[in-house]
Amino acid sequence: MSTKPYVNLSRSAWSALRHSTPLQLTAAEVERLRGLGDVIDLDEVREIYLPLSRLLNLYIEATHGLRDALTTFLGEAGREHGARPATPFVIGVAGSVAVGKSTVSRLLQALLALPHSRTETEGGAVPERPHVELVTTDGFLLPKDELRRRGLMSRKGFPESYDRRALTRFVANVKAGHPEVSCPVYSHLIYDIVPGERQTVRSPDILIVEGLNVLQPALPGKDGRTRLAVADYFDFSVYVDARTADIERWYLDRFRQLRETAFRNPRSYFHPYTQVSEEEAMDYARNTWRTINEPNLRQNIAPTRGRATLQLHKAANHKVERLSLRKL
């Protein structure tokens, strides 16, 4: 018997696990969910993400059953039939800059929010629509002024550039069933936290947390005691993986596209790179990749891959070519 923690599945073997899960998204909806530079179509949704949504729904139901068993053991009142569980199911999505984790997260949010079971009411059977919230860890980056004060502007995206305590506290409060929990909002336009703006999460059935370093283990406190990390609150986690050379190419392609679109906005932090030659702008992008994003990937992000429940391995064309599912 194998003692390896992961079972490796080819694309075709994984696709067969979809069974009869219906495809309820249209091509237009998939296009709307797609991130800039990412390549995804209905076939990718059908063959990769429908089986994943089926697996996640199985995990969600099993997790609710375990929580009911614990409630029974503790002698507490169980969930009423048909009521939403007080404790949301939390999914973490990790991976490098430009690997496509935002697209994966938005797709999962859309698929998991679709009706997947039916609940009896006085008016007959109606679809049950889970309430699915998506939060990115960008909102927990330290503000630019604070990053400058700490000398961390050249390490933006590294674990130390986040308010990790606030992120962990946020997810812990959502998981604990607080009716409303809010977090800061990050703007890619101004490349900073938006002053006074908050995202409020209200009693979700499912919470998706997307970010570079969400699978990082907790660091010991100053007193030497081990703390909880945000990943300790995940019920399921996904790592979006690809070859480093492919991710670099995707990153540069995305920068080139942004230079022709969003960076044209005079308010954009990167607007100055639309006022120079393409060669100079791309030299900046390559330097950013090699001095910030690639070291962060190699030192901090990739080493957490083995902590994920599921690894999606992308080919050079952005298509998922194989998957690794944790079984132990």
The ordered H/E elements are EHHHEHEEEHHEEEEHHEE
Largest pleated sheet:
7 strands, mixed
Quick one: CATH superfamily? Answer: P-loop containing nucleotide triphosphate hydrolases
Percent strand equals: 15-25%
| Overall SS class | alpha/beta
- The global form is globular
Provide the gyration radius in Å: 21 Å
Question: Care to give the gist of this entry?
Answer:
With 328 residues, this protein is of the alpha/beta class.
Task: Describe what you observe in this structure.
This protein is of the alpha/beta class and 328 residues long. It has one domain (6-115, 128-326): Rossmann fold (3-Layer(aba) Sandwich). Helices cover 35% and strands 20% of the residues. The chain has 8 helices and 11 strands. A hairpin with a 4-residue loop joins strand 6 and strand 7. Helix 7 (244-259) crosses helix 8.
From the structure above, extract its key features.
single chain; 328 residues; alpha/beta; Rossmann fold; seven-stranded mixed beta sheet; two-stranded antiparallel sheet; 8 helices
What is the topology?
Blueprint: E1 6-10, H1 11-15, H2 27-33, H3 42-73, E2 89-95, H4 101-112, E3 117-121, E4 124-128, E5 132-136, H5 144-149, H6 164-175, E6 181-187, E7 192-201, E8 206-210, E9 236-241, H7 244-259, H8 278-301, E10 310-314, E11 320-326
Parallel strand pairs: 2-8, 2-9, 5-8, 9-10
Antiparallel strand pairs: 1-11, 3-4, 6-7, 10-11
Helix pairs in contact: 3-4, 7-8
